[in-house]
Every structure is written in structure tokens, then in C-alpha cells.
Amino acid sequence: MHARRQLEREELGEEKLVILGSGWAAHAMLKVIDASKFRVTVVSPVNHFAFTPMLPSAATGTVEYRSMTESVSRSNPYVEYVEASARAVDAEEGKVSLDDGTSIEYDKLVCAVGVRVNDAVRGAEHCFRLKQVEDAVALRRAISRNFEKAARTGDNRLVTYVVVGGGPTGVELAGELCDFIKDVGRRFKKLAPKVVLVHAGAQLLQQFENPQRVEALRALQAQGVDVRLGVKVSEVRDGEMVVDDNILPFGIAIWCAGTMAQPFMETFLRGLPSEAKAGRGFVAVDDWLRVRGTQDIFALGDCARLERFYPQTAQVAAQQGAFLARHLNRGYDGSTPPRLPHSSPNWEQFWVSVVRRASEAPTFDFLDLGMLAYLGGGAALSQLRFGDLPLGAYSGSAAYLLWKSVYLVKQVATRNRVLVTFDWFKTALFGRDITRL
Ligand code: FAD
């Protein structure tokens, strides 16, 4: 791996590998890719990776943003980073056009641009989102601004939080908001802050098994969350939203209901063969994550669709990133199915071919390790698995300890583990900080 030995610039590989995005899939690639084989360029509007499961904690001040991020240069010091968004791809010429007016040539291209929040409802611009660090920063600022303002004016609407969407993001955010209110609310005794969770489905957390969905509802309601199931938001206005013909006033609304393809995907798909179009702006890839109908373009994570269904999770995206990097490091060519080079120039390739008793590249296979969700009040849900083998479902404080341990272990570097641990101690000892910077 790159960190094991210092590479000189002239020792970097010649083949130009361009990676679009710096999220879960791209980051996993950066950790594994061999810079002596590829000259890697990362194109992304943000210069860091963010540990997205902790965005609700970052938005409410339980952890700091910088504790759960890692800059591209820290992830892999041998890659070049370009701060821009991809606008279009010329697959014939092997070129990506960027929004800063420049373009970059590639020999191999990896599209890992993720998805965006599906806020296609009238007036959704009045809501906050929670998809990237920038969103958590904006939300945290607004939360503290509204608390101060409500304390001055006595207007409880300002401290009414409406979370739209009862998936993991919405549920975790509602739980974190309860913790925040319990903690900060002690300093603003005259206020009556409130959390409302609005969800179109009949149950929360569809991804979990039924007893856990029931437990999520019970835990949130026990903390005073007003959970409204089976209702739809038809319009959002400044300070209120229409929910099934009723008006729901809010101080802060956060839209966490569903995802859709990034705008870039439209132009990207336009230049690709028809078999690459998976519908609704997603790109179809084969079992080796190659965009269908191409040889040198790959797609990973939330923006890609394999024939077999995989959920849009960090787990899938990271495993795909590591898979593709290993696959490229081993020198598989672009034929179908991908094969090792004719000569086996190193021992790794030799053993891969011996162990697999074939020169054919293995296909991507997801190893499901289960799911976790924080519910607030020191309770969580955990559903553990090892592939197809269920390892038990837990809830309450035991699951919370597990949630904390897993999130700590899963941090991408020791630096993050230390910082997150420190943040947790700081919050437990001194409470959440509402200083607005
Ligand atoms: P992303 O991680 O979204 O990365 C996309 C990257 O592409 C970003 O760096 C973005 O800036 C960049 N980009 C966008 N457009 C362009 C462009 N035009 N050109 C170049 N770059 C571009 N999953 C779990 O497994 N467990 C969890 O507990 C969990 N919790 C979550 C909590 C929250 C609040 C959120 C938002 C998500 C959570 N997820 C969780 C889902 C997980 O974050 C996603 O599945 C994962 O991020 C997908 O990885 P990705 O690399 O495909 O996309």
C-alpha cells in the first residue's frame, strides 16, 4: 500500500486513473490503490471524505466536523486533488470536462459521485438537508441561532424541529435532536422545544426487522418525539409545511426523505452506450463494476446499479471501492470477463492465479455485516450479520455501546478515533456547545 514506502514523483505509475468523488467508494479506493501503478487524480467539489453516519451527531454538536473527516491528501499523499465538479465525459477522447472550464484526460475513469437528497417537493428549499459536512454546519448554526432568538422572543415555533423521513438518517437525527434539547434546553428553561418526525411509510426504519421498527417508534415517542406515520408532505413554505392538508409550523425543517441521481449523471449517461442506462439517472455496471458497454469506465457506490440489488449504504460503497482498487492493482485487463495479464510480473498476481485456479477476475460480492441506528437517550438498534448468517438483533443501551464501539473502530484513521473519543468525553462532561462561529 502507498504508505508503506515513500514513492518519488517519477516512480508513480504512468496509467492515468481519474476518480470522480471523495466519498465512501472513492475513499476506499484511495486507501488501497497502488500509486506505483497508477497516476491518480481525484476530482471532487470537497477536498475531504466525511464519515456520513456521524452527520446527525455533527449537526447537533455531539462531535465536531473535523473529527469525522479526512482530507484527500491525508487519505493518500500520492494522488493529485482537483477541487471541481465533473460536468461531462467524452468517452471517445477519454476526457472529463470540469465546471472550472478545464478538462482532464484519463486512461481509466471511476465515477463515484453518489446521490443527492430527493427534495422534489414544492418549497423544499425552505428545508435543511443532511448529506454532507456543509449541511451539518449550516444546520448546527441554525439550531443555535434559533435557540438564542427563541429565548429572547419566547417564540417556541423557532425551536420546533420537523424531520421529514423515517429512514436511518431521519430517525438518528430525531434522536440526536432529543439529546441536544435535553442538554441545551437546561440552559433555556422557559422554552418548550419539540421534535416532530413525519414519515410517509407505515413504520420507521424499513431496512430493519419488524420488532426493531416497533422499538424505534417506542424509543422516540418515549423521548417526546411527535412521530406521524403514513402522512405526506405536499408543500413547504417559510416556517410551515402542508402535511396531508394540515399545516405544520416549524422553526427548522430537515428533509431526509429519499435520494435521487446527481445532476452530473444526465450528461455522463448521454455519452455512454444505451446498455449503461439503468433508469432514473443511475449507471448500469457489470459484476466487475465496469460501466456496461465500456471497458475503461467504472462506477461505484450509490450512483451505480448492479444486476443484483444492493442497498445504498456506506458498507456497499466502501467494499466496492476496495474491490476495484485491488482488481486494478492486480493488473486485470478490460476484456470480458477481466483476465490477468499474460505474463505474471509479480508474486501477488502469481498467488492470486494459483489460489483462484484461474486467471479470471473474481466478481464483486457484498459481505453484509448488518446495520446500526442511534435512537437518542443512550439507546440504539443493532442488527448484526455475517453475510447470510444473522448474528442477532439488539436494542437499548447494549446496542448503544455496540453502536459506539463500531463507529469508533470504523473511523478511517487513528486521528479520527482519538478526536471522536475526545468529543464524546467533552460532550458528556461539559455538554454541547452552541457557540455560533
Ligand atoms: P458519497 O459518499 O455521497 O460521495 C460522493 C462524492 O462525490 C462526494 O465527495 C461528492 O462531493 C462528490 N461529487 C458529487 N458530484 C460530483 C461531481 N459532479 N464531480 C465530482 N465529484 C462529485 N450508510 C451506512 O452504511 N451506514 C450508515 O449508518 C449510514 N448513515 C448515513 C447517514 C447520513 C446522514 C447519510 C447522508 C448517509 C448515510 N449512509 C449510511 C449512506 C452512505 O453515506 C452512502 O451510501 C455513501 O456515502 C455512498 O458512498 P458514495 O461514495 O457512493 O457517495
TrEMBL record:
Family annotation (SUPFAM superfamilies):
FAD/NAD(P)-binding domain
Where does the chain cross the membrane? none
Q: Where is the FAD/NAD(P)-binding domain?
A: 16-321
Could you tell me the keywords of this UniProt record? FAD, Flavoprotein, NAD, Oxidoreductase
One GO cellular component term noted in the UniProt record for this chain: mitochondrion
- Can you give the residue ranges of the External alternative NADH-ubiquinone oxidoreductase-like C-terminal domain? 370-433
Named from the GO MF annotations, one term is: NADH dehydrogenase activity
Q: Which family does it belong to?
A: Belongs to the NADH dehydrogenase family.
- The protein in question is named NADH dehydrogenase
Q: What is the lineage of its organism?
A: Eukaryota, Sar, Stramenopiles, Ochrophyta, Pelagophyceae
